[in-house]
Design brief:
It contains five helices and 17 strands. It is an alpha+beta fold. It folds into three domains: 61 residues, RNA-binding S4 domain (Structural Genomics Hypothetical 15.5 Kd Protein In mrcA-pckA Intergenic Region, Chain A), CATH 3.10.290; 77 residues, Pseudouridine synthase (2-Layer Sandwich); 109 residues, 2-Layer Sandwich (Pseudouridine synthase), CATH 3.30.2350.10. The strands form three sheets. Strands 7, 8, 9, 10, 11, 12, 13, 14, 15, 16 and 17 form an eleven-stranded mixed beta sheet that branches. The two termini are 41 Å apart.
Length: 294
Protein backbone atom coordinates (compact mmCIF):
# COMPACT_ATOMS: atom_id res chain seq x y z
CA UNK A 1 0.00 0.00 0.00
CA UNK A 2 1.54 3.29 -1.14
CA UNK A 3 0.36 6.84 -0.52
CA UNK A 4 1.66 10.40 -0.38
CA UNK A 5 1.50 12.50 2.79
CA UNK A 6 -0.43 15.75 2.38
CA UNK A 7 0.98 17.43 5.47
CA UNK A 8 3.61 16.91 8.15
CA UNK A 9 2.68 14.19 10.66
CA UNK A 10 4.13 11.42 12.84
CA UNK A 11 4.22 7.68 12.23
CA UNK A 12 1.71 7.09 15.03
CA UNK A 13 -0.76 9.67 13.71
CA UNK A 14 -0.40 8.39 10.16
CA UNK A 15 -1.12 4.77 11.10
CA UNK A 16 -4.06 5.83 13.27
CA UNK A 17 -5.52 7.78 10.34
CA UNK A 18 -4.97 5.13 7.68
CA UNK A 19 -5.99 2.11 9.79
CA UNK A 20 -8.93 3.14 11.98
CA UNK A 21 -8.95 1.42 15.38
CA UNK A 22 -5.42 0.02 15.05
CA UNK A 23 -3.87 -0.77 18.45
CA UNK A 24 -0.53 0.48 19.76
CA UNK A 25 0.77 -3.10 19.89
CA UNK A 26 -0.02 -3.57 16.20
CA UNK A 27 1.75 -0.29 15.34
CA UNK A 28 4.84 -1.51 17.19
CA UNK A 29 4.75 -4.76 15.21
CA UNK A 30 4.64 -2.81 11.94
CA UNK A 31 7.77 -0.91 12.99
CA UNK A 32 9.50 -3.99 14.38
CA UNK A 33 9.05 -5.96 11.16
CA UNK A 34 10.09 -2.97 9.01
CA UNK A 35 6.75 -2.99 7.22
CA UNK A 36 6.59 0.80 6.83
CA UNK A 37 9.02 2.95 4.85
CA UNK A 38 9.18 6.63 3.98
CA UNK A 39 10.90 7.52 0.70
CA UNK A 40 12.39 4.02 0.74
CA UNK A 41 13.81 4.23 4.28
CA UNK A 42 12.41 1.92 7.00
CA UNK A 43 10.80 3.71 9.94
CA UNK A 44 11.41 2.56 13.51
CA UNK A 45 9.89 5.13 15.91
CA UNK A 46 6.28 6.00 16.69
CA UNK A 47 7.10 9.70 17.14
CA UNK A 48 9.20 9.93 13.98
CA UNK A 49 8.21 13.03 11.97
CA UNK A 50 7.22 12.55 8.34
CA UNK A 51 7.44 15.61 6.08
CA UNK A 52 4.66 16.68 3.72
CA UNK A 53 4.77 15.23 0.18
CA UNK A 54 6.80 12.21 1.32
CA UNK A 55 5.88 8.81 -0.12
CA UNK A 56 5.03 6.12 2.42
CA UNK A 57 4.63 2.40 1.79
CA UNK A 58 3.18 -0.20 4.16
CA UNK A 59 4.05 -3.77 3.16
CA UNK A 60 2.26 -6.44 5.21
CA UNK A 61 3.92 -9.28 3.27
CA UNK A 62 7.03 -8.78 5.41
CA UNK A 63 5.09 -9.69 8.57
CA UNK A 64 6.27 -13.06 10.01
CA UNK A 65 3.04 -13.05 12.07
CA UNK A 66 0.91 -13.50 8.92
CA UNK A 67 -1.18 -16.65 9.35
CA UNK A 68 -0.61 -16.70 13.11
CA UNK A 69 -3.31 -15.91 15.64
CA UNK A 70 -2.98 -13.01 18.06
CA UNK A 71 -3.58 -14.05 21.65
CA UNK A 72 -6.44 -12.21 23.36
CA UNK A 73 -5.82 -10.30 26.60
CA UNK A 74 -9.07 -11.68 27.98
CA UNK A 75 -10.85 -15.04 28.24
CA UNK A 76 -12.30 -15.88 24.83
CA UNK A 77 -15.07 -18.47 25.23
CA UNK A 78 -16.38 -18.90 21.68
CA UNK A 79 -15.90 -17.35 18.25
CA UNK A 80 -16.91 -17.82 14.64
CA UNK A 81 -16.84 -15.48 11.64
CA UNK A 82 -20.10 -13.80 12.73
CA UNK A 83 -19.87 -13.38 16.51
CA UNK A 84 -17.78 -13.96 19.61
CA UNK A 85 -18.35 -14.44 23.33
CA UNK A 86 -15.81 -13.33 25.93
CA UNK A 87 -15.56 -12.82 29.69
CA UNK A 88 -15.54 -9.24 30.92
CA UNK A 89 -13.60 -8.96 34.18
CA UNK A 90 -15.07 -7.05 37.12
CA UNK A 91 -13.98 -3.41 37.39
CA UNK A 92 -13.87 -2.73 33.64
CA UNK A 93 -16.45 -0.70 31.71
CA UNK A 94 -18.19 -2.63 28.95
CA UNK A 95 -18.13 0.45 26.70
CA UNK A 96 -16.35 3.71 27.45
CA UNK A 97 -17.47 7.22 26.59
CA UNK A 98 -16.47 8.60 23.16
CA UNK A 99 -12.88 9.91 23.08
CA UNK A 100 -12.31 8.71 26.65
CA UNK A 101 -8.87 7.47 27.69
CA UNK A 102 -10.43 5.11 30.21
CA UNK A 103 -9.98 1.51 28.96
CA UNK A 104 -13.08 -0.51 28.18
CA UNK A 105 -13.80 -4.15 27.43
CA UNK A 106 -15.19 -3.19 24.02
CA UNK A 107 -11.95 -1.44 23.00
CA UNK A 108 -9.94 -4.45 24.19
CA UNK A 109 -12.02 -6.89 22.12
CA UNK A 110 -12.05 -4.51 19.15
CA UNK A 111 -8.24 -4.34 19.14
CA UNK A 112 -7.97 -8.14 19.32
CA UNK A 113 -10.35 -8.72 16.40
CA UNK A 114 -8.78 -6.02 14.23
CA UNK A 115 -5.24 -7.21 14.94
CA UNK A 116 -6.20 -10.83 14.27
CA UNK A 117 -7.92 -9.99 10.99
CA UNK A 118 -5.36 -7.40 9.84
CA UNK A 119 -8.07 -4.72 10.15
CA UNK A 120 -10.58 -6.58 7.97
CA UNK A 121 -13.02 -7.19 10.86
CA UNK A 122 -14.44 -5.21 13.76
CA UNK A 123 -16.97 -5.83 16.53
CA UNK A 124 -20.33 -4.32 17.41
CA UNK A 125 -21.72 -4.27 20.94
CA UNK A 126 -24.86 -6.32 21.67
CA UNK A 127 -25.38 -5.69 25.39
CA UNK A 128 -23.61 -4.43 28.52
CA UNK A 129 -22.75 -5.47 32.03
CA UNK A 130 -22.28 -3.07 34.95
CA UNK A 131 -18.67 -2.04 35.48
CA UNK A 132 -18.55 -4.00 38.76
CA UNK A 133 -20.05 -7.17 37.27
CA UNK A 134 -18.10 -9.95 35.55
CA UNK A 135 -19.25 -12.45 32.97
CA UNK A 136 -20.22 -13.23 29.40
CA UNK A 137 -20.54 -10.44 26.85
CA UNK A 138 -21.53 -11.14 23.23
CA UNK A 139 -20.26 -9.16 20.24
CA UNK A 140 -21.32 -9.17 16.59
CA UNK A 141 -18.82 -8.83 13.75
CA UNK A 142 -21.12 -6.87 11.46
CA UNK A 143 -23.98 -4.42 11.78
CA UNK A 144 -26.24 -6.89 9.97
CA UNK A 145 -25.59 -9.61 12.55
CA UNK A 146 -25.94 -7.08 15.36
CA UNK A 147 -29.38 -6.11 14.05
CA UNK A 148 -30.58 -9.73 13.73
CA UNK A 149 -29.42 -10.69 17.23
CA UNK A 150 -30.99 -7.61 18.83
CA UNK A 151 -34.33 -8.28 17.11
CA UNK A 152 -34.49 -11.71 18.78
CA UNK A 153 -32.85 -10.69 22.07
CA UNK A 154 -35.88 -11.56 24.21
CA UNK A 155 -35.55 -15.20 23.11
CA UNK A 156 -32.10 -15.45 24.71
CA UNK A 157 -31.59 -17.20 28.03
CA UNK A 158 -29.20 -15.36 30.39
CA UNK A 159 -28.38 -16.66 33.85
CA UNK A 160 -26.40 -15.03 36.64
CA UNK A 161 -24.81 -16.31 39.83
CA UNK A 162 -24.93 -14.04 42.87
CA UNK A 163 -23.52 -14.52 46.36
CA UNK A 164 -25.83 -12.63 48.72
CA UNK A 165 -25.67 -11.78 52.40
CA UNK A 166 -27.56 -14.02 54.81
CA UNK A 167 -29.47 -17.26 54.37
CA UNK A 168 -32.29 -17.00 51.83
CA UNK A 169 -35.26 -18.94 53.20
CA UNK A 170 -37.12 -19.74 49.98
CA UNK A 171 -35.74 -22.25 47.46
CA UNK A 172 -36.98 -20.03 44.64
CA UNK A 173 -38.92 -16.83 44.20
CA UNK A 174 -39.80 -13.78 42.14
CA UNK A 175 -39.15 -10.08 42.69
CA UNK A 176 -41.25 -7.51 40.85
CA UNK A 177 -41.25 -3.72 41.15
CA UNK A 178 -40.89 -0.45 39.24
CA UNK A 179 -37.35 0.90 38.96
CA UNK A 180 -36.41 4.57 38.74
CA UNK A 181 -33.13 6.49 38.76
CA UNK A 182 -32.32 9.25 41.18
CA UNK A 183 -31.32 12.23 38.96
CA UNK A 184 -28.62 13.37 41.40
CA UNK A 185 -26.98 10.19 42.73
CA UNK A 186 -27.87 8.11 39.62
CA UNK A 187 -28.68 5.31 42.04
CA UNK A 188 -31.65 3.12 41.14
CA UNK A 189 -34.51 2.64 43.56
CA UNK A 190 -37.74 0.64 43.37
CA UNK A 191 -41.38 1.07 44.27
CA UNK A 192 -44.50 -1.07 44.13
CA UNK A 193 -46.63 1.94 43.21
CA UNK A 194 -44.73 3.95 40.63
CA UNK A 195 -46.05 3.21 37.12
CA UNK A 196 -43.92 6.10 35.85
CA UNK A 197 -40.94 3.83 36.52
CA UNK A 198 -39.91 0.80 34.46
CA UNK A 199 -41.29 -2.60 35.43
CA UNK A 200 -38.55 -5.02 36.53
CA UNK A 201 -39.04 -8.75 37.10
CA UNK A 202 -36.35 -11.01 38.55
CA UNK A 203 -36.51 -14.77 39.18
CA UNK A 204 -34.14 -16.46 41.62
CA UNK A 205 -33.30 -20.00 42.71
CA UNK A 206 -31.21 -21.04 45.70
CA UNK A 207 -28.14 -23.08 44.80
CA UNK A 208 -26.54 -23.56 48.21
CA UNK A 209 -25.62 -21.97 51.53
CA UNK A 210 -22.01 -20.75 51.67
CA UNK A 211 -21.08 -19.95 55.28
CA UNK A 212 -23.11 -16.90 56.28
CA UNK A 213 -24.15 -16.25 52.68
CA UNK A 214 -26.28 -17.83 49.95
CA UNK A 215 -25.40 -18.61 46.34
CA UNK A 216 -28.31 -17.87 43.99
CA UNK A 217 -29.00 -18.43 40.32
CA UNK A 218 -30.84 -15.47 38.81
CA UNK A 219 -32.82 -15.07 35.62
CA UNK A 220 -34.07 -11.72 34.35
CA UNK A 221 -37.43 -11.31 32.69
CA UNK A 222 -36.63 -7.64 32.07
CA UNK A 223 -33.29 -5.89 31.61
CA UNK A 224 -33.19 -2.75 33.74
CA UNK A 225 -30.16 -0.87 35.02
CA UNK A 226 -28.85 -2.42 38.29
CA UNK A 227 -31.97 -4.62 38.39
CA UNK A 228 -30.48 -7.64 40.16
CA UNK A 229 -28.60 -5.47 42.61
CA UNK A 230 -31.71 -3.49 43.57
CA UNK A 231 -33.96 -6.54 43.88
CA UNK A 232 -31.51 -8.46 46.04
CA UNK A 233 -31.30 -5.43 48.32
CA UNK A 234 -35.11 -5.23 48.40
CA UNK A 235 -35.18 -8.88 49.54
CA UNK A 236 -32.98 -8.00 52.49
CA UNK A 237 -30.11 -9.99 50.97
CA UNK A 238 -27.82 -7.51 49.18
CA UNK A 239 -25.08 -8.90 46.96
CA UNK A 240 -21.77 -9.35 48.76
CA UNK A 241 -19.51 -6.39 47.96
CA UNK A 242 -22.32 -4.19 46.64
CA UNK A 243 -22.03 -1.38 49.18
CA UNK A 244 -24.01 0.95 46.91
CA UNK A 245 -27.06 -1.19 47.58
CA UNK A 246 -26.65 -2.14 51.21
CA UNK A 247 -23.88 -4.74 51.45
CA UNK A 248 -21.68 -5.03 54.53
CA UNK A 249 -19.09 -2.25 54.27
CA UNK A 250 -16.50 -3.64 56.69
CA UNK A 251 -14.27 -4.50 53.72
CA UNK A 252 -14.17 -3.25 50.15
CA UNK A 253 -14.99 -6.32 48.12
CA UNK A 254 -15.53 -7.29 44.52
CA UNK A 255 -19.26 -7.49 43.82
CA UNK A 256 -20.20 -11.16 43.73
CA UNK A 257 -22.37 -11.10 40.62
CA UNK A 258 -21.43 -12.96 37.43
CA UNK A 259 -23.26 -13.44 34.13
CA UNK A 260 -22.18 -17.06 33.77
CA UNK A 261 -24.55 -18.56 31.16
CA UNK A 262 -25.95 -17.34 27.82
CA UNK A 263 -28.02 -19.30 25.30
CA UNK A 264 -28.99 -17.73 21.97
CA UNK A 265 -30.10 -18.70 18.47
CA UNK A 266 -27.30 -18.14 15.98
CA UNK A 267 -28.34 -15.35 13.58
CA UNK A 268 -27.04 -17.21 10.50
CA UNK A 269 -27.15 -20.97 11.20
CA UNK A 270 -30.31 -20.69 13.35
CA UNK A 271 -28.85 -23.30 15.71
CA UNK A 272 -28.90 -22.70 19.46
CA UNK A 273 -25.53 -21.81 20.98
CA UNK A 274 -24.85 -22.28 24.70
CA UNK A 275 -21.99 -20.41 26.37
CA UNK A 276 -20.92 -20.93 29.99
CA UNK A 277 -18.20 -19.09 31.89
CA UNK A 278 -16.49 -20.21 35.10
CA UNK A 279 -17.07 -18.13 38.21
CA UNK A 280 -14.21 -15.71 38.95
CA UNK A 281 -11.45 -16.90 41.25
CA UNK A 282 -12.39 -16.50 44.94
CA UNK A 283 -16.02 -15.74 44.01
CA UNK A 284 -17.19 -17.86 46.96
CA UNK A 285 -14.20 -17.17 49.24
CA UNK A 286 -14.23 -14.07 51.42
CA UNK A 287 -11.09 -13.00 53.23
CA UNK A 288 -10.81 -10.55 56.12
CA UNK A 289 -9.29 -7.76 54.06
CA UNK A 290 -10.02 -5.32 51.23
CA UNK A 291 -9.98 -6.77 47.73
CA UNK A 292 -8.78 -5.54 44.35
CA UNK A 293 -10.50 -6.11 41.01
CA UNK A 294 -8.28 -8.81 39.50
Amino acid sequence: MKFNIAKQTTVENLLSEKFKGISKSRMKQILKFKQITCNGVALDRMNQVLEAHSQVEVDFTKDPMVGKKVKPQFKLLWEDKYMLAAVKPAGLLTVGKPNSRVPSFYSMVQSFVRDNSKNREQVFILHRLDREVSGIVLFAKSEEVQSIVKRHWRENVKLYRALVHGHVAQDEGKMESYLMEDPVSLKMYSSQNAPQGKLAVTLYRKIKIVGENTLLEIKLQTGRKNQIRVHMSDMGHPIVGDRRYGADSTYERQIRLCAYYHKFKHPITKKWVEIEAPLPLNFLKLQERDEDYK
